Amino acid sequence: MKIAIAGAGDVAAYFIEEFSQSPHETVVLSRSLERNPSMSNIEVRTTDYTVDSLKDNSQDCDAIDSTLAGPNEAYVASHLAILEACIQSPRCKRFIPSGWTINMEDFPDQPLYLSKSRNAVLEALRAQSEVKWSFMCNYWFMDYILPVSNRFLKDIGNEWLMNHTTKVFDLYGDGLQEITLTSVRDTAQATLALLQAHDIPWSDFTHLSGETLTPRELFALLKRHDPSWSLRNITLTDVLRDIIDTNAVESGISGVLRLVGFTNCGKSPSERTLQWNTGILAGVHGRDVGSFLADGSTKRVP
């Protein structure tokens, strides 16, 4: 199998490393030939994300895995072009759109600033039957529990509940809403396993879970690992004021994503979540928070 990874950003860096260690061929589709360290031995093909360009660059591929970020018109346009290129291709008939998201199956309106663009892509995917596809719902990337020096992912400010500089952990409400965390590498390996499972039906949404726990439980684990962490209580009123003051729904900044912390959309539905080392994920092992923290102590980017 030959896989094209669309995009060459932070998330792509993990996928490139994991895919390149598999028996399958990997190429990267990017607007430029600029390379990050993970792409040292990978073929990079430049594209302007038009249908014709994508067809030319993926004609020898079996699948496209998108890591392109949103939300904006470019996200929608590029994904619709990838889909059309796959429809027209005699070979490339598997497509993982860029979601890497919370439970958009049961909560299609969340997060507010992403929902419009993702739902536009979802509608187009459902309107055709030639290309297999699935949105990967990995929920929060577990990598954010480590400082930026231990991950490819950039900081996202107070959109994530941990400030690694001040060692302050934001507790939304009573801190009892469960959240799911899955590392980017484990997500990449699960995605590869799904792409290999081309002979079985795919669900519109593929749910993953490295570990599901409450923020209070997460804080307790972090506190044992590093006693310098402290708690800060954040109320729903605090977040709503932030959204109103900054017009966050339109600008796509912090307050809107923080709303997720007060809902169940950040928790994977256990009855629909793939099980590690079973079925599609046979041979793939997901890490819980404790294992991931341990890996972070010995590896530069676990």
UniProtKB/TrEMBL annotation:
Keywords annotated in UniProt: NADP, Oxidoreductase
Keyword Oxidoreductase (UniProt): yes
Gene3D superfamilies xrefs: NAD(P)-binding Rossmann-like Domain
Entry superkingdom: Eukaryota
Keyword Oxidoreductase: yes
Gene Ontology molecular functions: oxidoreductase activity
Family of this protein: Belongs to the NmrA-type oxidoreductase family. Isoflavone reductase subfamily.
PANTHER family: NMRA-LIKE DOMAIN-CONTAINING PROTEIN (PTHR47706:SF4), NMRA-LIKE FAMILY PROTEIN (PTHR47706)
Protein name per the record: NmrA-like domain-containing protein
Organism listed in the record: Penicillium thymicola
